[in-house]
Amino acid sequence: MLTLVVLISGGGSNLAALLEAAESADFPARVIAVGADRFAEGFDHAEHYGIPTFSVAMSNFVNRDEWGDELLEQIQVWKADLVVLSGFMKLLPPRVVEALSPNIINTHPAYLPEFPGAHAVRDALAAGVTETGASVIKVDNGVDSGPIIVQERVLIEPGDTEEHLHARIKPVERRLMVQTIKDIATNRINLKEL
């Protein structure tokens, strides 16, 4: 059974989908802790399933590296097989990525390498493109620049707002994340080879 620590920053809709999938007896992974960079609404999902939570606020530290060291310590307490960044809106310091690599993945609401960064949906609309997508990547030290594990296109419809487009991307992102975790757990995906 693959064990997971999931890191979030907000409402945790991807986390909720993963926790729901993990309720199935044949799903080969379990979330054992949920962390955040601040108190996050998504902790409610963890609480509903009896999953422990932790938060490490950057504002409590002198610099990013000290924050990263504490976050890494909190993650490593759980000895999880995989760390999943799911709506986690902070860039991890290089030593955190290196300590967790290759067993750290991220979801992103764009068809990478198109539209990396925190405003992917807004950026896609501003660019006037006809399609965007969702991606799951292995995390590296760049901004959404790691090796792509899986991705899928999502069409942009005339009149789409950021909110409407994001609402159509999220289910695709959730499905890809859940399938990727299943494939890692069943050795269909080997993160070391990416």
From TrEMBL:
Coiled coil: none annotated. InterPro entries: Formyl_transf_N (IPR002376), Formyl_transf_N_sf (IPR036477), GART (IPR004607). Belongs to the GART family. GO terms for molecular function: phosphoribosylglycinamide formyltransferase activity. Keywords: Purine biosynthesis, Transferase. GO terms for biological process: 'de novo' IMP biosynthetic process. It is an enzyme of class 2 (transferase). The active site is at residue 108. Catalyzes the transfer of a formyl group from 10-formyltetrahydrofolate to 5-phospho-ribosyl-glycinamide (GAR), producing 5-phospho-ribosyl-N-formylglycinamide (FGAR) and tetrahydrofolate. One of its GO terms (cellular component) is cytosol. It catalyses: N(1)-(5-phospho-beta-D-ribosyl)glycinamide + (6R)-10-formyltetrahydrofolate = N(2)-formyl-N(1)-(5-phospho-beta-D-ribosyl)glycinamide + (6S)-5,6,7,8-tetrahydrofolate + H(+). Pathway: Purine metabolism; IMP biosynthesis via de novo pathway; N(2)-formyl-N(1)-(5-phospho-D-ribosyl)glycinamide from N(1)-(5-phospho-D-ribosyl)glycinamide (10-formyl THF route): step 1/1. The record marks 144 as: Raises pKa of active site His. It comes from the Bacteria. This is Phosphoribosylglycinamide formyltransferase. Pfam families: Formyl_trans_N. N(1)-(5-phospho-beta-D-ribosyl)glycinamide binds at residues 12-14. It comes from Rhodoglobus vestalii. Its EC number is 2.1.2.2. Residues 4-181 form the Formyl transferase N-terminal domain. (6R)-10-formyltetrahydrofolate binds at residues 64, 89-92, 106.
